[in-house]
Amino acid sequence: MVLLIRGRNMCLLIATRNPGKLREYESLLNGCGCELVNLQAYPEIDVEETGSTFEENARLKAIACAQTSGLLALADDSGLEVDALGGAPGVYSARYAGPGASDATRVQKLLAELQPVPPGKRTARFRCVIALAWPDGRCETFDGTCEGEVAFEPKGMNGFGYDPIFYMPEHGKAMAELPEEFKNRISHRARAMALAYARLRELDADSR
C-alpha cells in the first residue's frame, strides 16, 4: 500500500505494504496536522529490497517513491537482530521463513533455531532506519533501536511480526503485551520517527 499525507504546506508519500506498520505510523503522525490519503495512483511503485543493510533498503524505497511521484517521500526498513544468530534475521526478517509466510510461521522458525540457546544468551534488538527522500535524489536517514531478548514463547496480542517473542526486561513484558500507545513511544520505529518528525517540522517551518 502506498499512502499520501497532505498537510497545509507539504505532501509526504509513505511506502508500506504492512498493515501493522501503517497502524504505527498513523499513531506516530497523530496530531501533526496531516491528512492520510490512499494513493492508488502509483501502482507502479514496487521496489525490490536488494540492499544488504536496513539503510540501503530504506533509501532504495524512499528515493524510488520520491522520483516516481515527484513528492517528498518517506520509507523505512526494519527488523530483528539476534546476537546468537550473528545478527539474523536482520534485513531478511520479513522473508525469514520464505515468501508469503505468516508472522506465526516466522516466529516459530526463529524459536526453533534458538531452542538450544539458554537465557541470558538470547539478546536481540529491533532496529529501524527511516529514509526521507526528495525528487531530486537527496536523501536523509534516521536510525532507531530497541534492546531486548528473545523469549521462549509468544505472549501478547498488541503487535505484529516478532513483537510477541521480543521480551523487554526493563518492562517485564513482551513488546506485544505493552499497550499500543506506550509501545509507540518506545519502539525502534518510534525512536527513528521522532528524529524524522523533527526534520519534517523543520521543513514545514521553512516552507511558511
Brief rundown of the structure:
By secondary structure, the protein is α+β, with helices and mostly antiparallel strands. The chain has 5 helices and 8 strands, in the order ββαβαβαββββαα.
Percent in strands: 25-35%
Helix count equals 5
Largest sheet: 8 strands, mixed
Gyration radius from CA atoms, angstroms: 17 Å
- Helix and strand pattern: EEHEHEHEEEEHH
Gross CATH architecture = Alpha-Beta Complex
Note the overall shape: globular
Q: How many β-strands, per DSSP?
A: 8
Query: Order of strands across the biggest sheet?
Result: 3-1-2-4-5-6-7-8
End-to-end span in angstroms? 30 Å
Low-confidence stretches: none
The secondary-structure class comes to: alpha+beta
CATH topology type? Maf protein
Q: Name the average pLDDT.
A: 86
Domain module tally: 1
Q: CATH first level: which class?
A: Alpha Beta
Task: Give an overview of the whole structure.
The chain is α+β, with helices and mostly antiparallel strands. The chain has a single domain, classed as Maf protein. The chain contains 5 helices and 8 strands; from the N terminus they run ββαβαβαββββαα. The protein has helices at 19-28, 54-69, 103-114, 180-186, 188-206, and strands spanning 2-6, 11-15, 35-38, 72-82, 123-133, 139-150, 166-168, 173-174. Strands 3-1-2-4-5-6-7-8 form an 8-stranded mixed β-sheet. The model has no long low-confidence stretch (mean pLDDT 86).
